[in-house]
Amino acid sequence: MTGNTGNTGNTGNTGNTGNTGNTGNIGGVGWFISDRVDLPFVTRLAPGGMSDLGSLRRIPPTSFGNRQWSANWYAWRVLHEMLAKVPNWAATVDADPMFTNIRNALVANFNSQIDDLVLADRDERPDAMGLILSQDGEFFSDFLAVLTIRPGSHPQTWRVLNIASLIGSFAALYFKDKYDLPRPSQICPALLPPIPVPGHSSWPSGHSTQAHLMKNCMLRIFAATASMPNPMPAADQIVWKADLTVLADMIARNREIAGLHYAADSAGGTRLADLIDTVILTPTTVTMFDQAIAAAAEEWQ
After folding, report:
1. For the purposes of burial, counting CB atoms within 10 Å of the CB of 249, is it exposed (0-12), middle (13-18) or buried (19 or more)?
2. Among 55, 129, 166, 265, fewest CB within 10 Å belongs to which?
3. Contact (Cβ atoms closer than 8 angstroms) between residue 183 and residue 197
4. What is the pLDDT at residue 59?
5. Separation between Cα atoms, residue 173 and residue 168, nearest integer Å
């Protein structure tokens, strides 16, 4: 019988005496009565007995404020100003002999460029696949990585990168629409691009235009530090120029390796970016762009 002494372990159940706290249920309603009214934040009573309808209000600001515009939307404002200040921007670009020659050479001989893409598919695509996939959606990350910055650490620089990306995309799409050249895989379906072919024409490459204009704008930022108390050393600018040029070229080249673009598409995008930088967005032409460059330069001195 002594074996039954094992039941003394049930004395552990005395811990349930904590349930006596439920005696508050007497009357059947105490458990459900809230001890506070959870009003929306804006209707909370203000200290001092002010109205509960959000009486603590600021004097209305005169505007939303440049600082409040996020980088991607601020870029649209710069684009709008560019179109207003330089309404003939497209004709200016189109009159450039080099820009025209790149396109004419492509149209005269698609096959030679297709041959190059077949070799790139065979020899380079497997190794480039990771970057092909990641850069298809965005390549801001690549620029941030090379520059070793973040949007939060260099918000004005981030704004300039967005400006360059938007203007580059807008300009490239204008000429894609105007010349409407076929994609490489329309001529050679066996290229079989590993990602969906974009739903617009081939020349010039939007990736190339955007990446090279982003590079050009970064070089402008670095150069703008020259007039500041702590200018960026020339040696540092050489390093940045080399790194960013290689990055922009690589982004464009990966689109060729994927079978999405001809080499002439990349070259056309590079030239378009250079023309926007040197002929369209010249100093004192687009005020908001100049201001964005100056503000970003402050982050690099």
Report:
1. middle
2. 55
3. yes
4. 93
5. 9
Q: Amino acid letter at 227?
A: S
Tell me which residue of 195, 167, 210, 187 sits closest to 262, measured CA to CA.
187
pLDDT tens-place string over residues 175-208: 999 999 999 999 999 999 999 999 999 999 999 9
Which amino acid makes up residue 219? L
Q: Which two tokens stand for residue 59?
A: 């004097």
User: How many residues are recorded in the chain?
Assistant: 301
Please, what sign has the CA dihedral across residues 95, 177, 195, 210?
positive
Q: Are 51 and 61 in contact (CB under 8 A)?
A: no
Distance CA 129, CA 141 (A): 17
CA-CA distance, 251 to 243, in Å (whole number)? Answer: 12
Residues 6+ apart with CB under 8 A from 95: none
> Which 8-state DSSP code applies to residue 167?
H
208: exposed, middle or buried (C-beta count within 10 Å: 0-12, 13-18, 19+)? buried
Residue 70 DSSP one-character state: -
pLDDT under 70: residue ranges of the chain:
1-37, 44-52
Residue found under tokens 């801001």: 140
Preceding peptide of 194 cis, ω within 30°: no
For residue 259, give both structure tokens. 């079978």
DSSP code for 22: G
The answer to whether the CB of 74 falls within 8 A of the CB of 163 is yes
Backbone angles phi, psi at 220, to 5 degrees: -65, -45
Q: Which two tokens stand for residue 255?
A: 């689109």
pTM attached to this predicted model:
0.86
Alpha carbon distances (Å) from 237 to 121, 147, 169, 241, 246: 35, 12, 26, 6, 14
